[in-house]
Amino acid sequence: MSQTREVAERLSWVAVDWGSSNLRAWAMTDDGQVVARAGSERGMLALTPDDYEATLLATIGDWLPAEGRVPVRVCGMAGARQGWREAAYLPVPTRLDGLARGAVRPALEDSRLDVMLLPGLCQHPDDAGRHFDVMRGEETQLAGLVAREPRTTGPVCLPGTHAKWARLEAGAITRFATYLTGELYQWLAGQSVLRHSIGQDDLAEPGGHEAFVAAVQEVAAAPETFANRLFGLRAQDLLDSGLPPGQARGARLAARLSGLVIGLELAGARAALAEGETVTLIGTETLAARYALALEALAIGCRCVDGEAATLAGLGLAHVTLARAPRT
Amino acid sequence: MSQTREVAERLSWVAVDWGSSNLRAWAMTDDGQVVARAGSERGMLALTPDDYEATLLATIGDWLPAEGRVPVRVCGMAGARQGWREAAYLPVPTRLDGLARGAVRPALEDSRLDVMLLPGLCQHPDDAGRHFDVMRGEETQLAGLVAREPRTTGPVCLPGTHAKWARLEAGAITRFATYLTGELYQWLAGQSVLRHSIGQDDLAEPGGHEAFVAAVQEVAAAPETFANRLFGLRAQDLLDSGLPPGQARGARLAARLSGLVIGLELAGARAALAEGETVTLIGTETLAARYALALEALAIGCRCVDGEAATLAGLGLAHVTLARAPRT
Lengths: 328, 328
Prior knowledge:
alpha/beta; six-stranded mixed sheet
């Protein structure tokens, strides 16, 4: 049996995480197994509404059986106003098992597709210290976390380009805050004046680990020095005879830059933590490990949850909910 | 008499501020009057060492008399390692009337030119809380400030792409710190995810002044929230029905962004100020006025000094010092 035919025969539904710069798709069985994976670099920023269906078919068309309609459950920026079709934000606080009620169906030409786009979350300012904020995609990971571990409570961190810190309580998200951390790091390392000094980001280079931890602690102790410490990396590269030469030099400074940017985020997030609270980290292994190291440097406990598993659990919950609901 | 001939007849020396992205030149008389100005967009980043003499001649060649050698005194990045010829950093603390002792003469072909490149300053870490730092160009403005007002003491701020805070004492610079403020703002406004929300930066738009001041105060009170408040600008644009439409909307958010970035710098610089100290601001009128507004919002007093006048006074001091010294 060919691989394609096996996928088509076992396929029950398709999970899709469609972000700004790429999409990832999983062929799912009835019992939540992944039988195939696919992806594309055509994210929301590269697409107009008319492009989405063709992009989806180019990515998962091989999985579809000749007959029948396959549910496709999509989270992320495809549901943004500039995406395929807008799935309006649900306001927090909100229960995480209710995301499907905000899902919308885009117009489709191929009768084999049954697509639903999940909504993001928004937050308005209030007396309890909430600020304007939005998320699209991470809410589905949070829903998956709660679906898998219903008793999860307290702070959850989702590192990334726009890192999210959410607070969970009894199956609901009560508030959240986004930090520009990943985007800031990418620019500082690749385009700012620091680009001349920053090398490959690898904490395994000699001294990288220590440089990262020291930077986290320094900026968390004095966050007002952030913009000064950034320029200090360039000056250190020009002046510090103690830095190693070659690749280790750039890696050392990259480790320090990463520590400064993540440390500033943690300094902000720490202010919302209760004494002794443990942070749940959702993300890729590498990034979650780095955040775990940074949290440890600030004496904050944490545990890591796989990001892909959370996404699939969240989309799976939406799939089950939508299968039960009358078709809109 | 033609303008060119008048300049050539009155010209005593040429002042040059040669930065990363442009150069500015002034034709000076014996008694410190400016008889002509010229400029070029060919800064250090666009030049190899062999390009400098031709660029200088293309900019000020019209001013030179047919015979005789004209002193040209240059501050800024032309003296960097990647510039025309390196004028090695002088370490702080150092007296500001001694910059000329670190000046170097680049190789020249045109016998009408007598060029000297002034050095920048560097700072190494020590027990007194100094950090690695460098400056090239601002030290000449500080020297000019002290030449014009010898009793100037205390904190001096030079806003810009890489904003400098220096401390003066009895004609010497004792320490300084650079903040990546201007570069950070340019990237956030023009290239980051905020570019969709940030409009023309004009505090004169309705509400702009208030938005700027509020942002300065918020980030100075809680600098650890900086990266969160940055993303909050994007969320506010998406969600806040209280924002005005059109040009005023983008201007309001630009004012707030400017306040966040400058506020973070001031929060850092404030930590080094003694109670009741007045800050001397050196810069262009617009930027100095904005910093004055931000300082006022934090109840810090300041006075403004014109940046061009400081540059010319600093180069003038170097010119006089070099004229007295034996030719190297």
